[in-house]
Amino acid sequence: MASLNGSPASPAALQALALTNYGHFTTMKVEDGGVRGLALHLARLVADCRAVFGAELDPEWVRECVRGEAGGRAGAFMVRVTVFDPELDLTAPDRAGRPGVLVTTRPAAGSADRPLPALPPLRVQRLPFHRDTPSVKHVALFGQLRLRRAARLAGFDDVLFAGADGLVSEGCTWNIGFVDGAGAVVWPEAEVLAGTTMRLLRAAGAGHVTAPVTDARLRSMRAAFATSTGLGVRALAAVDDIAFRADDPVIGALRESYAAVPLDRL
């Protein structure tokens, strides 16, 4: 199902989004009517709407639209809120200024009181890439997905991006963190999209630092993990030929910390 501004989305509106691919979004996991970091998701949409459209977005209107599409449903599922202008003209994108709120849902496993076992660790391949406007969660995903495809065709589970300077930045649709030899959590110092899960973990825990992750520093880490709304906290088994400890106790503690974040009611 899909709704636009609280009503069923028309094929013409969805076609406009598909053909222009101009907009921004956030994805949240709803668990029995609640969302971890709901305020962060709404703040992201408001800030990105200013950046992408130069328009103000009412966060309470967004909540109402989400409730209309997802309210009253039990269990766990994913909700994506996409903000785009159905009237956007490719020849005059400067006139886009009336963005609408598209709400779509898809299944998700687990719930707040019935969490699933940890997902198997990922093996990822480093490839050079720098996202366009990395601070905005925009809908232009071609570059990222092209490299995810390349990594999977090469036998990996996913892709990890590194800049022209060789510094590690982020995964295709997730943030990456590391555990150093002393047990500190290290987040890459780079231009990245600051994910909601990463921000919640940093707010909830001590001993987190930010530092440039060079190849040498990467090889010195004892563990690595990915974070996103869909993944939660997922261990990495390897980056290229560099193996990590997937059962590191710090990663287990991070999972527990994330699970303990209270759910905000829609």
Shape: globular
Radius of gyration: 19 Å
User: Mean pLDDT score, rounded?
Assistant: 94
Q: Uncertain spans, ≥5 residues at pLDDT below 50?
A: none
Describe the model.
By secondary structure, this protein is of the alpha+beta class. It is built from seven helices and 16 strands. The strands form two sheets. Strands 7, 8, 9, 10, 11, 12, 13, 14 and 15 form a nine-stranded mixed sheet that branches. The protein has a seven-stranded antiparallel sheet with strand order 2-1-6-5-3-4-16. The chain starts with a strand and ends with a strand.
List keywords for this structure.
266 residues; alpha+beta; seven-stranded antiparallel beta sheet; 16 strands; globular
Short description:
This protein is α+β, with helices and mostly antiparallel strands and 266 residues long.
List the helices and strands and how they pair.
Blueprint: E1 2-4, E2 7-8, H1 11-20, E3 24-31, E4 34-35, H2 38-53, H3 59-70, E5 76-84, E6 100-107, E7 122-128, H4 142-153, E8 158-162, E9 168-171, E10 175-179, E11 185-188, H5 196-204, E12 208-211, H6 215-220, E13 223-228, E14 232-239, E15 242-243, H7 249-259, E16 264-265
Parallel strand pairs: 7-8, 7-14, 11-12
Antiparallel strand pairs: 1-2, 1-6, 3-4, 3-5, 4-16, 5-6, 8-9, 10-11, 10-13, 13-14, 14-15
